[in-house]
Design brief:
This protein is an alpha+beta fold. It has a single domain (3-236), classed as Jelly Rolls (Sandwich), CATH 2.60.120. Helices cover 15% and strands 32% of the residues. It has 3 helices and 14 strands. The protein has helices at residues 3-24, 118-121, 228-236, and strands spanning 38-41, 47-50, 57-60, 66-69, 74-77, 87-98, 144-147, 151-155, 167-173, 179-186, 189-193, 204-206, 210-215, 220-225. Strands 1, 2, 3, 4, 5, 6, 7, 8, 9, 10, 11, 12, 13 and 14 form a 14-stranded mixed sheet that branches. The longest helix has 22 residues, at 3-24. The model is unreliable at 1-17, 23-31 and 103-136 (pLDDT under 50).
């Protein structure tokens, strides 16, 4: 086993352990495993994941990020989601578990979920909701970013690089609502308006236990205190 694959395997285990910690050990959180989302191909080959109207779904992105989507949510993942482009678009509500960025490694260009290794294993092993942990976080060159209609959320360090600490955060950003919210439970998150504001375009830096709220009707974004009861309540609603 090469150094790269050893590191990738270790980081994949770290991501999964972090996800299990959030999902099973915080008080009051239910342990029921979500199903898998519907997967379709969108414009320019992007992968589009949709939850049903009455269920939550879970998927793993090529960099190992775990996503639990609430009912009625849609996640857009570009066809070239890789170590230099880790931006996804969300319309809905989802919990993201992003492991710390790794060092070293090569060949982590990444491919869209459900398509990894198709050329060497055959299309029969690909398909909707298939996770491919071999495309891990080693050699990550760009921060993980979630874009909604109103917010741009980046997991970065103070220098704007991919964060060296794990992050867990929940985003509530339905496109048909003027109000959006992001709650950070673990790690560090930088929140900006995803559009140009005529009043204020300064970012907000969130630490654990903080949240940001935005209302596009009045063009206002504010940082507030949050708590883990938000996560407990949300994840216990199976």
């Amino acid at each position: 086993m090469t150094k790269f694959h050893s590191m990738t395997k270790f980081q994949g285990m770290t991501k999964y352990c972090l996800f299990l910690f959030v999902w099973t050990t915080l008080p009051g959180i239910g342990c029921k495993e979500p199903g898998r989302p519907e997967e379709t191909i969108g414009k320019e080959g992007e992968r589009v994941y949709r939850s049903g109207t009455a269920k939550r779904t879970r998927l793993q992105l090529p960099d190992g990020t775990e996503v639990v989507m609430n009912a009625g949510s849609t996640l857009h993942v570009p066809s070239r989601f890789n170590r230099t482009n880790r931006e996804v678009a969300l319309d809905g509500e989802a919990l993201f578990t992003v492991a710390a960025a790794g060092k070293g490694g090569s060949g982590t260009d990444g491919v869209a979920p459900g398509n990894s290794g198709a050329s060497r294993r055959g299309q029969g092993e690909s398909g909707p909701g298939v996770s491919h942990p071999e495309n891990g976080a080693a050699g990550i060159d760009s921060p993980f970013v979630v874009r909604t209609k109103a917010l741009l959320l980046a997991v970065t360090d103070s220098m704007g690089n991919p964060a060296a600490v794990a992050s867990v955060f929940k985003v509530d950003g339905y496109a048909n609502s003027p109000g959006e919210e992001a709650d950070l439970f673990i790690g560090r998150l930088v929140a900006r308006k995803s559009y140009h504001s005529t009043s204020d375009n300064d970012p907000e830096v969130l630490g654990p236990g903080e949240m940001v709220m935005i209302n596009t009707d009045i063009d206002l974004m504010e940082k507030e205190k949050s708590d883990t009861t938000v996560l407990r309540a949300w994840m216990s609603e199976q």
